[in-house]
Amino acid sequence: MIDLSLIWFGIIIFSILMYIVMDGFDLGIGIIFPFNKDAEERDVMVNTVAPVWDGNETWLVMGGASLYGAFPLAYAVITDALAAPITLMLIGLIFRGVAFEFRFKATPDHRPFWDKAFIAGSVLATFSQGVVVGCLLNGLPVSHRAYAGPELIWLDPFALFCGLGLVIAYALLGSTWLVMKTEGRLQQNMARLTIPLVTGLLVVMGIVSLWTPLAHPLIATRWFSLPNLFWFLPVPVLVVACFWGVIHFIRRKAHYLPFVLTLILIFLGFSGLGISIWPNIIPPSVSLHEAAAPEISQAFMLVGSLVIIPIILVYTFWSYYVFRGKVRAGDGYH
Fold this sequence. Notes:
334 residues; Formate dehydrogenase/DMSO reductase fold; two-stranded antiparallel ribbon; 14 helices; 75% helix
């Protein structure tokens, strides 16, 4: 018999991963905006994502809608417990989106304001996403199918640290994206910025990897019990290999490989989240099947998703294919 809950969990994970990969680098560009004061180069930075940035957020909508339809209990608990960081994330995305468009149309006197709004929106949205991830790793108390924890559960040191870690991760995605998409002085500056960013990300991943099992005995048991330990051992090895590869290829002036290796680093970190909470969708007590909608509802939604997801993939691939290659000063999409 087909396990529809498992299929929907896979769709949600895939949507979130696609969002992190695609919206991560354009949020990252906003995060690293303060490291470049040159107005012309800032225009180039924004123009590298101008044709595709709004399409990237399709995956966030897809993931949220899928969670609402396929796992309504999880949606209700998460939005109740984490209403504040989710709202802050949406405010950040709105500010970032508005500033993205308005900075090109603003007068020279007003453009610094929209640049600051672009930076603030990018940082706020990214930090809030990291806080949500940290809270999910910590777990959300549920009683009688409703959230039963404190209102400020998200103001937890671990969750806040995860927010900081995601800011560094997205900044690294942004810098390596610009290494791939630009040339000349801007590319060289982004290459120099990449080395401290990837070092910072490695430190953050190391701290989270130590903090998580120490704070959560159930996760520690899952990580270090046999045979799970043998399955998880390649993960830290691959993380170190990717870290070395990013620095090595940056120093060799490679254009594409640093970004590809950064994507692998992000995927490895994301896989650690999935491994830690499985098979719960609301750690530590609500499983995938306990939070699931009726099978008839999941089956009805799945028919539409099997049509919509390939369409999204096709237009996403086509948009990136059309706007492939380097972006130079003077190129514009506004």
